[in-house]
Structures are given as structure tokens and as C-alpha cells.
Amino acid sequence: xxxxxxxxxxxxxxxxxxxTTLSPTFESNVIAFLQSLKNAWAHVTISATQRPSxxxxxxxxxxxxxxxxxxxxxxxKKTGVNIEWCHRNGDGKIDRNKSIQAAKDMVxxxxxxxxxxxxxxxxxxxxxxxxxxxxxxxxxxxxxNKKGETVIINSLQSSN
Length: 160
Known about the structure:
By secondary structure, the chain is an alpha+beta fold. Helix content is 30%, strand content 14%.
């Protein structure tokens, strides 16, 4: 039996923030980069690595439904995700406003309110080839690249 959409779905199909969930080749490159950052006294906070396809599905369709870009009864089903996007009123008819509000609640809980495009159904995150992280440092950042050469970053830190 399907369960109504809403913010409770956000805690399901959790993504990872561990490098161990990355694809092997990408993981080895990330580990080397993180070590270079550590050696340069940078501080790294990893927020996301691998994202299950089920989570990508929930994020994608809640974002679209929250913006009324799709009707709740037109959201495609996904095997293994027993969500009901259609909220109904007392007479059993689809209540579009309730359905959209539940999707908006999901978007808020996923922290996607400022996202200007729907999250991808398939992405580097679902493939295990992406990492989201914040890097902070003081002064210039001096890193060693793969060739052992020093790369100096003098620019200010940016959130972009």
C-alpha cells in the first residue's frame, strides 16, 4: 500500500557523506585531494557523496510538483518507492492544493527552496562520482597536485 507524500519521506533513502560510497576510481582521486587539503591545513566538511536513485526520484518529483509543473496524478511510479503523490479530499477526488503543499513540505525538508532547477533523476551523485563539500582556509592555500607541484590559491573563499 502506498503512503501519502510529505516531509516524512525526506528521512528515507538517505544519501551518504562518506567517501567509501563513491565509485572506486573517483574515491581514490578524492582521497588524494582531501589529503592534499589536509596537508595544507584546510578544513573540509563533506555534505554529500552518493545519492540513492530513490532519493533522487523523491527530490526531483517533489520539486516539480511543488512548483505545479506536473499534476500529482501524472508523477510516474518508481519501483521500491511506495509513495502516493495524490492527496484526496473527503469525496475521494484529488486535492491538488494538498498534494502541492505536501510536495512543498518535502522541498523545504530537502533544503531545496532556492534550487532553480529540478534535481536530476540520474546524476554524478547517483553514480557515486560526485562530492559536495565546503572547504575553508586562512590566508593562501598551498596544495600539491598529482605531479607533486605546488598550486597556490590566493583568491578569497567563495560559496559558488
